[in-house]
């Protein structure tokens, strides 16, 4: 049982447990036994923090069913190993070296030193952001639905946003609140901070603490923070401009809105496409250009150690600089005056290739059975599932059982990570001392 297999089986166990609970009569609004396929799809979407839904979460599931979904989102957002480790700490036990390596594998960082403090910091960060989001959203929801229902709506949407899940209790997601600055800004802030990763948040906290204390020494940000922060900001700005340009004359999305609402909707769309799953405009009415921009942003996704999916901002940045170095005739890849290790470049290439292969395979499989759907609808749905985004063009509920199972597979692989799934299948790789002669071949 390798670490990769432990992580994969752990996520499968969570999905199975969620499926069983959501199948029970107390989980549905009408008190009947739930369809196993609906339960499996919803459980997978919640654990994998995707947000794709085959039924309306707010009306199909009972309060207990919604609580189960929210718990699955929370555990899935933290990750199987992180949640298990936290439970071990609550019981007062110490975790062994194997569990430390599992945390390292989950976060792709060498956290062997101070792993206990790391887990506590991550849990504390999660609670601080989610509770803050609840209080900020409560004013809007309580004014419309009353204190009790407004509180539940605030809790559900705050946790869903922080974990980049995209589940909403409204049938049209957040379309009804596209003019609300409070809802848009709070949800966007939760999604962005949840997506940039815990390491980046901790560095921001340390920098702010040093600044408040008036220390004169310069704070040195890590390469990971510089790449994550700059790439996230760049994608957010470019995405907002792109959606404004492509949708501003589209009567189905932005044309009939005020200038302020157009900007707000474009900003929200730019943010949510990178794994959040909420939407404030009708995706099915978007232009073809807008849909392709959405798919590109979904493919890139969030950042490492965050709650989002996709190939990650660091991966796309490494490959961009690889291309830049090749065009400039250089044999090294440099980011912020730091040379990127060769093994990291190989890993970035493997992530993109594996992701593309999985998306293409799933798209072909669904296209074979859903012949009545357009290609762009199927591709959009598959990318959304694999990148754990949750946006849809409205076809999810009408898909066949086979197509839904394909999306379940895509969500699972996308959340666990394509490399971890492959490592779980292959098993332990023995190091080799063989060295082969080099030979050139034509490329490009």
Name some characteristics of this structure.
single chain; 444 residues; mainly alpha; two-stranded antiparallel ribbon
Structural summary, described in words:
It is a single chain. The chain has about 450 residues and is mainly α. It has one domain. It is built from 18 helices and two strands. A two-stranded antiparallel ribbon has the order 1-2. Helix 5 crosses helix 7 and helix 15 packs across helix 16. The radius of gyration is 22 Å and the shape is globular.
Give a count of the beta strands, DSSP E runs of length 2 or more: 2
Rg over CA atoms, rounded to whole Å, is 22 Å
Please identify the structural class as seen in this structure: mainly alpha
Strand composition percent: under 5%
Helix content: 55-70%
End-to-end Cα distance: 41 Å
Query: Helical element count?
Result: 18
- H and E string: HHHHHHHHHHHHHHEEHHHH
- Strand order in space, largest sheet: 1-2
Largest sheet: 2 strands, antiparallel
Mass-distribution shape? globular
- Low-confidence regions: none
Number of domains: 1
> What is the overall pLDDT average?
87
Q: What assembly state would you assign to the polypeptide chains in this entry?
A: single chain
Quick overview:
With 444 residues, this protein is mostly helical.
Break the fold down into its secondary structure elements and pairings.
Layout: H1 3-23, H2 36-47, H3 57-60, H4 63-78, H5 80-90, H6 97-107, H7 115-145, H8 147-162, H9 181-196, H10 198-213, H11 223-247, H12 259-272, H13 288-300, H14 313-327, E1 334-335, E2 338-339, H15 342-369, H16 375-386, H17 401-416, H18 418-426
Antiparallel strand pairs: 1-2
